[in-house]
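User: Some background: our group keeps a shared notebook of sequences we're curious about, and every so often someone picks one and asks for a predicted structure to add to the entry. Today it's my turn. The entry only has the sequence so far, pasted here. Could you supply the structure so I can complete it?
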Amino acid sequence: MSAGRRGDAEGPRLLRTVRSGTGSTGTWLRGRPGTAPGQGLGPHPVKRILVAGISGAGKTTMAQAVAARLHLPFHEMDSLKYTGPDWATGPDFVEQVAAIAARPGWIIDSLGYPEVRDLLWEHADTVIWLDYTRAVVMPRVLRRSLRRTLFRERIFGGNVETVSDWFRRDHPAWWAWSQHAARRAEIERRSRDPRFAPLNVLRFPSPRSAEEWLRQV
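Assistant: Of course. Here's the predicted structure to add to the notebook entry:
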């Protein structure tokens, strides 16, 4: 177990699904009455947050919004990983992520790439899970990739999404469609894995539920 973790006497908290119109959104991250912003349920602080979900779920937008409200540093995972042409991974990517994970507070817009995934989950105290259906994420990811391709937007490491990229299995649109079920299953499994305890997990089944909750954070 990483030295960055808190004690492991308590198992992961049960997944808490927040639906729209419940009247109770916002209480989870804001904590009990009298706690300061950024304090979680019970004794566990909300300081190290992962925003998880499939491509197109809106992880970056959510992470930036929560970071602003809780005054936490925001880190974009793809900007950390892709630092050169042809989607090259930076040589110090793992070391960079490890240094961030060891800090007292942060929010990252990702489940984590395989080489840093366990590291991040071992340090995280909170996971915000945008568990949206394909019907929600596919129009979003298609619009985003189409815009990037047509306007040749330079993104991570100065790279662009090209027409030929659309025929690759790792293109965001193909990935969002083909890996939707697998990504959901992995987040579910990790959320209940005692290796990552104690862990607060807030699961949003729809954008509306996430938006209602965010307004009260």
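Suggested note for the entry: The first strand starts at residue 16 and ends at 17. Confidence is low (pLDDT under 50) at residues 1-14, 22-43.
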